[in-house]
Amino acid sequence: MQLRPDALDAHLAKSLASLYVVTSDEHLLALEAADKIRKAARAQGFSEREVLTVERSFKWGELLAASQSQSLFGDKKLIELQIPTGKPGKDGGQALQQYAAAVGGRPGADTVTIITLPKLDWATQKAAWVNALQQAGVYIDIAAVERAQLPGWIGIRLAAQQQSAERHSVDFIADRVEGNLLAAHQEIQKLGLLHPAGKLSFEQVQDAVLNVARYDVFKLNEAMLGGDAVRLVRMVEGLKGEGEALPLVLWAVSEEIRTLLKLQSGIASGRALGQLLKEYRIWGPREKLMQPALRRLSLKTLQAALQEAAQVDKMIKGLRAPAFSGDAWDALLQLGLKVARGY
Asked: Over the range 193-204, which residues count as b (16 or more CB within 10 Å of their CB) and which as e?
């Protein structure tokens, strides 16, 4: 069965299943979910623990052997199977189906298994082995904490340690830990160690919280589409400071401009935006950002932006680009701000 992450505590208080699957790209949240299952298992006598990691040399027979082997002391066993790639392959897929059939749905068994995976893509979610795991065990799919959700997440974490802060203080934390949830957790814990319960002042937050943000190239497009110029500047500076490859950043920005240009051209020819979004496979948070971005950006502006992207490409290759002065990173920032502001 599928279980919401926020329902895990209530589930573990009632019963312990024989098979759990935790899938997420948020390592902190996946680790916390697995820790809760481990704690519940230890409380019920599962004192032996065996960890298996799927690597190139991994033999899938080890998984079934681990579940069948008896402890020398007769202890109950906790088995953890880690699949870092989320791709078990053909043999692994068959082995997981067999394992699900063998150990799933057996409350009171002497073995509990936790399988951890990264967030699975759409195609992998339809695989037979995933369906087998969902049917046989408790399947917990933990979504990423997006930037818009981060202040609320930080507020909840502060409240859990009997602390609170004004919204601008929470936003200050969010700006400095974006893309690095583990660092966010550590900074919140630091505030709990440095200051007593109660309301934190902005000065206390500012003095304690480091700048540990990690920026994702593709989140840059989110700031650009959303017209968030301040976040865009911060992210470009962060990517530059982290040594991100400039051609990759330009490619991501250029692809977004091309997509906007295709959508705007389609609208100009009389086609419905909903149909175009479906055709270009745009959905989720990105879909919500497209409509305001298209209202802000004319066909002429997008055409000019694409031409400027070609100029930035020349600068990266060491050629002259009359449209820009300064270095290529600065030119990229100017291009991104043009799209974010609509001129």
From this structure: eebeeeebeeeb
Alpha carbons 34 and 16: distance in angstroms, whole number: 13
Same domain, 123 and 179: no
Express each pLDDT in 275-321 by its tens digit: 999 898 887 778 889 989 999 999 999 999 999 999 999 899 888 77
| pTM of the entire predicted model | 0.69
First to last CA, the chain: 50
Q: Residues of the chain with pLDDT > 70: what percent?
A: 96
Q: In terms of residue numbers, what domain contains 298?
A: 217-341
Residue 74, exposed/middle/buried by CB under 10 A (0-12, 13-18, 19+)? Answer: exposed
- Are residues 180 and 57 part of one domain? no
Are residue 324 and residue 199 in the same domain, yes or no? Answer: no
Same domain, 281 and 254: yes
Tell the residue number behind the tokens 């080890």, with chain if given.
62
Q: Which residues neighbour 225 within 8 Å (Cβ) at sequence distance 6 or greater?
A: 256, 286, 289, 290, 293, 339
* Dist. CA 100–CA 108, nearest whole Å: 16
Query: Are 197 and 75 within one domain?
Result: no
For residues 333 and 271, state if they share a domain. Answer: yes
Distance (Å, whole) CA 343 – CA 322: 19
How remote is the C-alpha of 62 from its chain's centroid? Answer: 30
Hey, what are 185's tokens? 């957790």
Q: Is 338 helix (H, G, I), strand (E, B) or coil?
A: helix
**With 0-12 CB in 10 A as exposed, 13-18 as middle and 19+ as buried, what is 137?**
buried
Distance CA 30, CA 144 (A): 10
pLDDT in tens, 206-216: 888 877 777 88
